[in-house]
Every structure is written in structure tokens, then in C-alpha cells.
Amino acid sequence: YEGRNEFGSILKFGLNLSANVHSPDDDVYFISANSNGVPIQNWLDGGPEQVGLYAHINAALLSLVNDPDIDEVVVHDFFMDQGESDSDTEILANAHKAKLKRVIKELRENLGLPNLSVTLRQLDSTLNYAFVSTVIAGQNALADEDINIHIVKGPYTYNQDGIHLDGTAQNLVGDQRFTASQTNKGQIYNG
To answer: What is the Cβ-side half-sphere exposure of residue 64, based on CA atoms within 13 angstroms?
Structure first.
């Protein structure tokens, strides 16, 4: 994996899933919706137009539902790797938990999956952000409040920029994300 950071932890997660599918006929799809370096506020109400979080995910899932060769679409997990931008200021950090909770609620409502499992990558307390511990506390509190929210944790190692996870850490996150995904059966998506 090392040197393929453009895939992130998704590659290792996908390899784990592929090695453990229930049937060789089962297909696994990943739907990506992202925007780099934005606070959680930017994800409220579906996020910026260029991402269109809810519309993008719904459109991708509907294309699978409408595919005559696919019998059933089961959504297992939504992964969020977010929070660094909210760790810069006290105001953003203090509001992070409530806004993250709202984004998760909106996502579940919009997809019609009230018990959708959400996995959060916990931020690293060693990062040089003034209020990272506040964001981490909020992430952990949400996981304590909601049995369908899971946390993946380091220890993380970084690329030379000191911000982005290196291949070893991406593999760790992929492994932990796979383990967390095994705790739920997923929900059938009907559109």
C-alpha cells in the first residue's frame, strides 16, 4: 500500500471486504463524497454544491437499486474523516459535536436509513491544533450516545507534511474500519 495515499484507507478496507464477502456473487461498491479542509458547518444541509453529499449518495444508490442485475442494495456504513478544520478555533471546536450530530441525523433521514452505521476517524491528540481535544471529546461523546456510531483510532503516522496519514496509518484505519463494519448487518436501501 505504501505510496498509494490517493486511495486512502478505502483500499485496505476494500481488500478486507473482498476477502470476507459472504458470497463470491456479492458486489461491493464505495461511494465517495468529499471536500478537503472544510469545517463540519460546510456539510450541513448536504454540503457545498460541488459535493452535494445527500444528492450524490442518493443518486449513486438509486442507480444500483434500478439496476435489473442487482437484487438488493444494503448500506453498511458511512465513514467520516473530518474535524481538523474545526480544531483551529474554540468556537468551531465547541460547536463541532452538535453539528456532527446534525450531519449524521440529516444523512440518515435523507437516505431513509435511520440506523445507518457511521464510523468516525478520531483525530490525533498530537496534532498541532489548539482545540483538537475538544473535537475528540465530541467525537467520543457521540459514539457513547449512539450505538451506531463507531470510532477508529491511531496511533497514526504521517507523511512529511505532518497532516496526512501515511500508508501504514491508512492501512490501520482500513483494518479498524473493517472491524467496525462487522458489528452491523447494514440496512436495505429502497430509494
So the answer is: 19
- Long-range contact pairs involving 123-126 (C-beta distance under 8 Å, separation at least 24): 123/83, 123/84, 123/87, 124/154, 124/155, 124/156
Q: What are phi and psi of 19, to 5 degrees?
A: -75, -10
Strands 149-152 and 187-188: unpaired
The CB density around residue 105, as the number of other CB atoms within 10 Å, is 12
Phi-psi region of 138 (alpha: psi -120 to 50; beta: other; left: phi over 0): alpha
Q: What is the pLDDT of residues 56-109, one digit of tens each?
A: 888 888 898 898 988 888 888 888 888 888 888 999 999 999 999 998 998 899
Contact 17, 28 (CB under 8 A): yes
Instruction: State the cell numbers at 119.
Output: 464510523
DSSP state string for 86-142: GGSSHHHHHHHHHHHHHHHHHHHHHHT-TT--EEEEPPPTTSS-TTHHHHHHHHHHH
Per-residue confidence (pLDDT) for residue 135, from 0 to 100: 94
Encode 127-150: b = buried (16+ Cβ within 10 Å), e = exposed. bebebbebbbebbbebbeeeebbb
DSSP, collapsed to helix, strand or coil, labels residue 182 as: coil
Task: Residue 135: name the closest of 72, 77, 92, 176 by CA.
Answer: 92
Residues 6+ away with beta carbon under 8 Å from 141 = 97
